[in-house]
Design brief:
Order of helices and strands: HHHHHHHH
Distance between the termini: 55 Å
Helix content: 55-70%
Strand content: under 5%
């Protein structure tokens, strides 16, 4: 084999496919759960489960964008840059909301407060309920 072929083969050996990359980085790339990676990448589960998982991933991205917008709206852009969006909603609360949304446990603002113990005003709770 030529030197170019060896270099290309070595480069390909070092690269991860998308499924493995998502599996390794499940906690950091917004997926949040290794099981979701298997359901999405390897089609584990029924069509309804796959649709639900895709819907949950969409909710994750919308809630993360919402946190950014609310942080800027309430505290200003400097707080978003310096402290991050956890000023409005912590990561643990976000993860808990996603888990509850997956099992459809949150229907109204009282459910949100009961499940997350997140101290928020009613307007923010209503906005989160609308998203999920």
């Amino acid at each position: 084999a030529s030197k170019l072929e060896r270099v290309l083969r070595q480069k390909k050996e070092k690269e991860l496919d998308q499924a493995m990359d998502l599996l390794i980085n499940a906690n950091y790339c917004g997926v949040g759960c290794w099981r979701k990676v298997f359901n999405i990448q390897f089609d584990n589960g029924s069509v309804g489960e796959t649709f639900l998982t895709g819907l949950i991933i969409a909710i994750i991205f919308v809630l993360e964008d919402w946190r950014d917008q609310k942080t800027v709206e309430i505290y200003g852009c400097s707080h978003l840059i310096d402290l991050g969006p956890t000023v409005v909603m912590g990561n643990l609360v976000l993860d808990w909301i996603i888990g509850c949304a997956h099992f459809q446990k949150i229907k109204v603002a009282d459910d949100l407060c009961k499940e997350t113990h997140w101290s928020i005003n009613d307007n923010l709770a209503k906005e989160v309920i609308t998203i999920i």
